């Protein structure tokens, strides 16, 4: 009858849990050790690709917005608020106007800039645009229309110019005072007036000189001034100037004020189509009747205006993730309907004078990947920049991963098989008969004790039990040999 096991040999729940945990930890260690070289290779390649690709953008970016208080400055604030949610700080750089903003982009003082169409034109338009394109300046898309607003005091318009004649009457004819409330329908009617052409750097003085020259008016046929929009508005209302010219978005505070001001009219230009043909960067739009104020029916008629488009320009050195973020933000801020456009007319790539960056084209004309719609900016950007590397690593590691299971199996089996060398040495000494049987039995007992403490996964338990069976077989042979020894000697 078998003797009951002593308490120290009983398997308690705690001991079973400890053994199970020990086995699991050993399996994890074996797996990590076997897969270690492959994991280290993958980690090294990922780190190298991360450093080379530099997927995460700088945390600050400079946006050239134009004069403080302008529509550009207002849009700059909106961009700053939108990008702040993604952890990007937008520093607003106020300039004298679109031409100055473009120059800041050329000089590297700004990463992104609002630039009006035609601002780069210094003589040959194509040559200027080609020079900017060669310098790495690109567009993220056209954002909105920026009409040419010509506000005037109707009582100051020259009657003779309105009839198509000369503003200078013959010497023998009496000079007539300007008739009140004469509508300005041609740029030739500006002859002899005091006109504010906006500030230098805004691009408006150069543009108006070209338009007036096309209408036969030279610099000596009118009196020009270059006051900022707010000061020019006050001067027009005070009668100190007869007309002012602005080229800005409808959201401009000066435009909003003058459109609702009594005693001030907005010029309707029937020749706008002809001027747009002469100057390709210009287009024509119509300010619909009642668009400003339906209740007051402002304006009382449709008004034809010349316009250009304002684009969001950037430089090729600007981080691609920032270009993508600005293009996506432009979709949100400028995609609605406006005074001169319908929903989703802007941003667009149709009116860009410079090459459109891949990020701008993808944001405007493509469909954003699903990860951009569901992941935060940093995660989607990381995946966007690294997916080729990750895909290449998967392709590379698939064949390498085939060596992991054999390495794992070898490591686990080695834990068992290394004791066979000791067992074989005991059997060799047993066969030679040179060692005392008691010493060999003690060594086999020690070997069995060690084998009983070996922990292997269940999938390899048969190899452990095979070792213990072989140890037991050697013990039986040794005992049988010892029992037969006296009879053999006798």
TrEMBL record:
Keywords: Coiled coil, Membrane, Transmembrane, Transmembrane helix. It comes from the Bacteria. The chain crosses the membrane at residues 31-53, 386-408. Residues 423-450 form a coiled coil. The keyword Coiled coil applies. This is TRAP-type uncharacterized transport system substrate-binding protein. It comes from Aquabacterium commune. The lineage of its organism: Bacteria, Pseudomonadati, Pseudomonadota, Betaproteobacteria, Burkholderiales.
């Amino acid at each position: 009858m078998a003797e009951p096991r002593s308490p120290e040999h009983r398997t308690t729940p705690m001991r079973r849990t400890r053994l199970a945990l020990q086995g699991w930890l050993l399996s994890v260690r074996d797996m990590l050790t076997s897969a270690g070289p492959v994991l280290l290779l993958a980690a090294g390649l990922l780190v190298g690709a991360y450093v080379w690709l530099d997927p995460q953008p700088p945390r600050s970016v400079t946006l050239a917005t134009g004069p403080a208080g302008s529509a550009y400055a207002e849009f700059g604030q909106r961009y700053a608020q939108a990008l702040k949610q993604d952890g990007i700080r937008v520093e607003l750089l106020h300039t004298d106007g679109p031409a100055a903003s473009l120059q800041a982009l050329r000089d590297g003082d700004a990463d992104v800039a609002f630039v009006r169409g035609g601002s780069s034109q210094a003589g040959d338009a194509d040559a200027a645009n080609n020079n900017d394109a060669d310098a790495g300046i690109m567009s993220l898309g056209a954002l909105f229309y920026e009409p040419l607003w010509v506000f005037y005091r109707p009582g100051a318009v020259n009657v003779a110019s309105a009839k198509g004649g000369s503003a200078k009457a013959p010497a023998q004819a009496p000079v007539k005072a300007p008739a009140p409330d004469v509508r300005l329908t041609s740029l030739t009617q500006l002859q002899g007036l005091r006109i504010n052409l906006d500030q230098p750097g805004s691009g408006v003085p150069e543009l108006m000189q070209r338009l007036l020259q096309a209408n036969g008016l030279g610099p000596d046929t009118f009196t020009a001034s270059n006051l900022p929009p707010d000061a020019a508005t006050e001067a027009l209302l005070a009668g100190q100037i007869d007309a002012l010219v602005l080229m800005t978005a409808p959201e401009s505070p000066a435009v909003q004020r003058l459109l609702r001001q009594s005693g001030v009219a907005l010029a309707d230009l029937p020749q706008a189509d002809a001027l747009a043909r002469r100057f390709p960067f210009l287009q024509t739009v119509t300010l619909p009747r009642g668009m400003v104020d339906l209740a007051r029916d402002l304006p009382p008629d449709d008004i034809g205006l010349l316009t250009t488009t304002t684009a969001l320009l950037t430089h090729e050195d600007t981080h691609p993730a920032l270009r993508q973020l600005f293009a996506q933000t432009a979709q949100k801020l400028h995609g609605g309907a406006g005074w001169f456009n319908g929903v989703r007319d802007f941003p667009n790539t149709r009116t860009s004078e410079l090459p459109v960056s891949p990020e701008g084209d993808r944001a405007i004309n493509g469909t954003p990947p699903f990860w951009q719609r569901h992941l935060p900016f940093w995660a989607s950007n990381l995946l966007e920049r690294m997916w080729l590397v990750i895909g290449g690593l998967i392709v590379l590691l698939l064949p390498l991963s085939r060596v992991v299971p054999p390495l794992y199996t070898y490591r686990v089996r080695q834990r068992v098989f290394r004791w066979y060398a000791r067992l074989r040495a005991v059997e060799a000494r047993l066969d030679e008969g040179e060692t005392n049987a008691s010493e060999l039995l003690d060594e086999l007992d020690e070997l069995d004790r060690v084998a009983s403490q070996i922990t292997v996964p269940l999938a390899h338990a048969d190899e452990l039990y095979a070792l213990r069976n072989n140890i037991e077989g050697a013990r039986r042979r040794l005992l049988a040999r010892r029992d037969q020894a006296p009879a053999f000697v006798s």
